[in-house]
Q: What sequence folds into this?
């Protein structure tokens, strides 16, 4: 029984190493998204997701939406957010931003160092976390 458990653990660890490069390969150049946590909420069909996003200087993430609210806390650097229906907002470390569900928005690093944000999403389960807009 102990050997079976040990083998199962080894297989899980090996499998997780195989999936890490695949997830990173799908990220656009200049961006790193690190999934921190994902939990079901008490509201049926909703979940909370937290992600750290690092954006290289001069890089922009195009217009997109989320199937729920996004709460942003800028950890480092300077980011400009273009949220439909609002004037562009430039935020620095310590600043926050709330983006309502389904609102089209984009982000761009306007500083000279890598910028980082903590993005917290309150979203519908089983929907893509992000949908690009043309």
A:
């Amino acid at each position: 029984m102990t050997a079976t458990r040990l083998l199962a653990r080894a297989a899980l660890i090996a499998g997780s190493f195989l999936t890490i490069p695949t997830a990173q390969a799908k990220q656009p150049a200049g961006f790193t998204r690190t999934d921190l946590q994902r939990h079901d909420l008490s509201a049926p069909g909703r979940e909370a997701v937290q992600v750290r996003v690092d954006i290289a200087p001069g890089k922009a993430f195009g217009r997109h939406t989320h199937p729920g609210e996004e709460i942003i806390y800028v950890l480092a650097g300077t980011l400009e957010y273009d949220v439909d229906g609002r004037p562009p907002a430039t935020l620095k470390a310590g600043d926050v931003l709330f983006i309502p569900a389904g609102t089209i928005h984009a982000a761009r690093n306007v500083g000279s160092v890598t910028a980082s944000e903590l993005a917290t999403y309150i979203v519908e389960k089983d929907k893509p976390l992000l949908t690009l807009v043309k």
Remarks:
- The beta strands are 31-40, 46-55, 60-65, 68-76, 78-83, 89-92, 96-99, 105-109, 115-124, 131-132.
- The helical segments are 2-25.
- The CA atoms of residues 43 and 124 lie 10 Å apart.
